[in-house]
Amino acid sequence: SDTYEQATSNLKYYDRIKAYVAKFQDTHFSISQNLNPIYLGFFLDLVDGKYIVAEKNPRLLAYMNAYNGSETAVVEEINVGDEVVEIDGKKVQDAAKELEPYISASTQAYRMKNAAESLTFRNFRFPEQNFAVVTFKKNISDALVKIKIPWFYSAIYGNRAEILYFFKHNN
User: How far is Cα 62 from Cα 73, in angstroms, rounded to an integer?
Assistant: First the structure.
């Protein structure tokens, strides 16, 4: 529909501006977007080339478990120290690399760290579906666990029509 095309076009426009500004390669020069962030309920950190769960939001993950209707609680499956190895069928390194052109950074190390964080919390490069399928390598057992996690949308900047419409139609 025309509304969906306009919403998608607006979000891609913000992405183009963000990518253009990031080409200056200056951490102190970036674009401030009043777009609401999307969040998977946990944060990643880049540690020795691995994408490690650094923090999780148990309340939000419990809510997501109810959304998932899964037998195993998402909040119990994700633990600080677990490694993310794949997101939506892509190696996590490749998924992070796709976000790097949108990160304003003076150094490659800073850009990579922010791309890692942006894999689970961002307000740009919105995914094409309202959930992510994440494969974790468990810290304790090295077992691989694949979990479907809905993207959580926060209206901290108000209800932007583009994002509301985007999430309503991409499921």
Answer: 7
Please state, in angstroms and rounded to a whole number, the distance separating the CA atoms of residues 34 and 36.
6
Per residue in 121-167, pLDDT (tens digit) is 988 888 878 889 999 999 989 999 998 888 887 665 555 666 665 56
In angstroms, rounded to a whole number, what is the distance separating the alpha carbons of residues 101 and 170? 24
State the burial class of residue 89 (Cβ atoms within 10 Å of its Cβ: 0-12, 13-18, 19+). Answer: exposed
Q: What is the pTM of this model?
A: 0.83
Strands 121-122 and 90-91: unpaired
- How many CB atoms neighbour CB 91 within 10 A? 13
**Residue among 133, 42, 151, 46 nearest 86 (CA):** 133
Inter-residue contact 113 to 100 (CB < 8 Å): no
